[in-house]
């Protein structure tokens, strides 16, 4: 950390150069260096200045890498020439907000992909109180993906013991947790992933009853019938497109679908059409989309469930950690080709 005579330090950033068309490329980003004073500016008295420790690579960021009329600050387009932002784990360097003080560890959203980030909406930050687990977990199992898995499964899917559960993108940040939570509930669980290594991970480490490589299946309908001969009660949707179409054929009467994400569609110019929607009517299927921010006010309830599971070894979590801010663009882009194994994290600096 070099400082100059004005009391400023260097601040490396990941900046968006171009709006992405199709699959994003590393050339759509640029790693630049600017300077910053380690003090909350006089005109931002309520802000919090953070030193970034870990950045979270999440598929939803793809939507912000294109020009969109959405105005929600968590989903709107990034500004070209400025650092991208998202969920992160950080330590407080300076604070103008009474709830945060220097040295506090926090996790939250709207944190820039940079070494130091000024957060002007500190209500988006949560103080980290439990440090007997890896801090990087607050980008995953103890952060947004964990909350997504927990409330998406329990609130949207209303699971019952013995039901059949299918999870797509099952080795990812959310899917690996949904499957393990479903097993704790006494459900039969099958997941799909995109490589032999990931399929083995689902069965050997996460305890799924079955798993298959969707890239090796020429007929997804037949694959699902192989694993669910009596149909699917609950589908945790992370993929969309052809996978969703096949699932609709295999849902049981009054099945539930939690629409969490549709990663197969994010880079397409023309989204795939769904042919089997009439099954929703005849099978009385309930399909519901949700956004994790709707459940942030219930974070303590989630922690009461998940922390004992981690400490007692009932749930395990796999991370794929890239080292250094410079590795951020490649790590983020890798999500869309399935390069990562487990939750993709970028480690910016030592804790």
TrEMBL record:
Q: Does the keyword Oxidoreductase apply?
A: yes
Enoyl reductase (ER) domain location, by residue?
Answer: 48-346
Question: Is Mitochondrion one of the keywords?
Answer: no
Which keywords does this Swiss-Prot/TrEMBL entry list?
Oxidoreductase
Any GO molecular function: 2-alkenal reductase [NAD(P)H] activity
- PANTHER family from the UniProt entry: ENOYL REDUCTASE (ER) DOMAIN-CONTAINING PROTEIN (PTHR43205:SF67), PROSTAGLANDIN REDUCTASE (PTHR43205)
Q: What is this protein called?
A: Enoyl reductase (ER) domain-containing protein
Give the originating organism: Populus trichocarpa
């Amino acid at each position: 950390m070099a400082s100059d005579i004005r009391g400023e330090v260097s601040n490396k950033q990941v900046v968006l150069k171009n709006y992405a068309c199709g699959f994003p490329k590393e050339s759509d980003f640029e790693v630049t260096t600017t300077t910053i004073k380690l003090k909350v500016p006089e005109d931002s008295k309520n802000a919090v200045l953070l030193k970034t420790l870990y950045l979270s690579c999440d598929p939803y960021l793809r939507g912000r890498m294109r020009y969109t009329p959405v105005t929600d600050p968590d989903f709107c387009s990034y500004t070209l020439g400025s650092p991208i932002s998202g969920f992160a784990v950080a330590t407080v360097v300076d604070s103008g907000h009474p709830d945060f003080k220097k040295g506090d560890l926090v996790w939250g959203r709207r944190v820039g992909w940079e070494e130091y980030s000024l957060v002007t909406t500190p209500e988006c930050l949560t103080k980290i109180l439990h440090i007997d687990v890896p801090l990087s977990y607050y980008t995953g199992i103890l952060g947004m993906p964990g909350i997504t898995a927990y409330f998406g499964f329990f609130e949207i899917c209303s699971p019952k013991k013995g039901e059949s559960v299918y999870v797509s993108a099952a080795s990812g940040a959310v899917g690996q947790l949904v499957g393990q939570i479903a097993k704790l509930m006494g459900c039969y669980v099958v997941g799909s992933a995109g490589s032999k290594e990931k399929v083995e991970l689902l069965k050997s480490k996460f305890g799924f009853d079955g798993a298959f490589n969707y890239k090796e299946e020429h007929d997804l309908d037949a694959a699902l019938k192989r694993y669910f001969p009596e149909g699917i009660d609950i589908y945790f949707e992370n993929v969309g497109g052809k996978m969703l179409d096949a699932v609709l054929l295999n849902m049981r009467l009054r099945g539930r679908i939690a629409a969490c994400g549709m990663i197969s569609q994010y880079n397409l110019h023309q989204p795939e059409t769904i042919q089997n929607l009439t099954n929703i009517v005849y099978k009385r299927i309930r399909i519901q989309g949700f956004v994790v921010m709707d459940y942030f006010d219930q974070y303590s309830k989630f922690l009461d469930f998940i922390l004992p599971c981690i400490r007692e070894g009932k749930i395990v979590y796999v991370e794929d950690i890239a080292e250094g801010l410079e590795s951020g663009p490649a790590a983020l882009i890798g999500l869309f080709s399935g390069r990562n194994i487990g939750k993709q994290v970028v480690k910016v600096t030592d804790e």
